[in-house]
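Tokens for chain A. Residues wanted.
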């Protein structure tokens, strides 16, 4: 995957481990409540060392296992992250996960970023399908695959946790290359 992806004139994706850990840490801390509803890692004790360890693992996975994490910059401001894993899947099925700072929601940043990764996956990396999972109550997250024409295919029961340690079901969405409208 490229080190940078220019989504459009407002949005740039850049390898996540190229973003200073302090920058990631600051934005995540500003958003702990917002993120913790659906993401188990957004804990109050999330610290810069944890970011560095995560980035180091990301650097290794980038080359070894077909997993790619990007920082999202919106009008040059660090806005959140998006990742795609499963490039090494024997059936060409990759999945996408994401988060965005609360104050930048509502601008289509994530829908546009997801759309750019889908295009790259189908056109350049020979993927056959892209999968997105979201908790049933996560309306904003579910709206992204729904907006992009994904098909809801089922539910994985208790396959995620929130920051309180409560189990979350996940609704599965998938988009096949044959369904993709470009
Ligand atoms: C999930 C999450 C990324 C969604 O963020 P979002 O801002 O709602 O999604 P987008 O950036 O795609 O923006 C969509 C909104 O922008 C609008 N929009 C504006 N321009 C747009 C464009 N060019 N394209 C698409 N939508 C556009 C849409 O109409 C929509 O508006 P609405 O909020 O009134 O419905 C965010 O809520 C989040 O990070 N939540 C916490 C973490 C999380 O839950 N992660 C996912 C775990 S599965």
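Reply:
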């Amino acid at each position: 995957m490229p080190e940078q992806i220019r989504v459009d004139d407002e949005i740039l994706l850049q390898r996540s481990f190229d973003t200073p850990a302090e920058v990631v840490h600051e934005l995540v801390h500003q958003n702990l409540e917002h993120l913790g509803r659906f993401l188990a890692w957004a804990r109050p004790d999330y610290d810069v060392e944890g970011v560095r360890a995560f980035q180091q693992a990301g650097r290794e996975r980038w080359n070894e296992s077909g997993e790619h994490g990007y920082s999202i910059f919106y009008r040059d401001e660090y806005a959140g992250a998006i990742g795609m894993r499963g490039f090494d899947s024997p059936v060409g099925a990759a999945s996408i996960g994401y988060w965005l700072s609360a104050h930048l929601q509502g601008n289509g940043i994530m829908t546009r970023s997801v759309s750019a990764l889908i295009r790259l996956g189908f056109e350049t990396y020979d993927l056959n399908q892209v999968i997105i999972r979201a908790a049933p109550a996560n309306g904003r997250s579910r709206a992204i695959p729904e907006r992009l024409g994904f098909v809801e295919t089922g539910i994985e029961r208790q396959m995620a946790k929130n920051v309180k340690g409560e189990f979350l079901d996940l609704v599965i969405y998938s988009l096949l290359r044959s369904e993709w409208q470009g």
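Strands lie at 4-6, 11-15, 67-74, 77-85, 93-100, 129-134, 151-161, 167-176. The mean pLDDT is 96.
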